[in-house]
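Sample pair:
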Amino acid sequence: MSQLVVLRGIDEGKSYVFEENVTLGSTPESNLILTDRTLKEIQLGIFKKPEGYFLSRQKGSLPVFLNGALFQNNQPLQHEDILQIGLTLIQLQGNNQTQKRAILKNRYRLVRPLIAEVTGSYYEAQDQKIQRPILLYLASTALLSRFPQLQEKLIAYGQMYSKLNHDSLPALLDFGIDGTFLFFIYEFLGDVTLHSLLKSGHPLPTPQVLSCVKDLAFVLRFAQKHQLSHWNIHPNTILLHQGRTILLGLGLDRIWIETCADGYLKASWQNKISYLSPEQTRKGDVTALSDLFSLGVLFFEMLTGQKPFKSSDPYELIAQIQKNPYPPLSSLGIEVIPRLEKVLAKLLEKDHNFRYQNLRDLTNDLEVCSLIFTYREQFENSIFSRAINTFFFRWFVLPGMAFAILWGMWHAYLKTILEDL
């Protein structure tokens, strides 16, 4: 028995199970027909034949990717293959998938999946030696087998990352290879992703937004100092744990993108288009400044509950990112201080040369915004502020104070005239 698991998309988490001699599709010879609910013109069929599973296009001409490469008709499928249909990410899994990955190095036992990516997946796991939870990242075996040079680069990455120390980065505890699996073991910092908070479509409280964006700005400043960049910031790469904002995968996607073919780059980014910078969508010079645009998109989404650029058509979405200005916050009923709007505008500049060039300036601006908001909030909650808002104060005290000031000014004026006479 095999199953197709939707790793990301509208039907995220859904499984399609199919067995030999069982027909689930709309045609007799097809085991399963897949249709992307966002791009309905794409339709693929999964066929079971004696020699294995095969993928065949049923409808549509938009690009589809298999393990990062453009799909060819009647292409064979293997377990753990990753299929990208429009904006949906699907993996073919066998019934022995869980058993195969149950324990790594006779020590790390998988508990449950947390975050799925084209390049690999994050799991909650248990370190059986010291009996504590850990965060386990398993690199995609399909892509590792296709690009064998990745293994050496990822091991070197593990050696480099293990020396980093920052409050917004999870500590790397172990990494290595077990059979065909390349893994990284991080400290476990909960399972609350920014995605889980944003999927309701409601704005987050402004203090939480400022705290989160400030933490991310500081870790990107730290990354810039160490000549690192992310290139893949989106809500599923961010954890929120006990007041800390944790960034996952710093530097990982850059390795995949620089090593793998252009087809992989398109496939890995296609389901995250909303968070890409303009230069990432048109093969421009992708630098650490591209991360700032992604941060700006997250900033906007946390403040408003919606993305600044929206379309079910990926090509239309790319055109918006490249050309359209983001909607003003005031048009969405969101009121913020002018300085914060200036920070957002600078992060979302289309030309990376007009974004923050020195991240120290960004963190300083965010610190000022945070202080202004804190003092304003403290004033609004103060006894004096509450007194000002009472009926008696507004209609009796304030007019009385104004009358006293005007009377004093008039009295001083009359006194001056009389003295001159």
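Residues 391-420 form the longest helix (30 residues).
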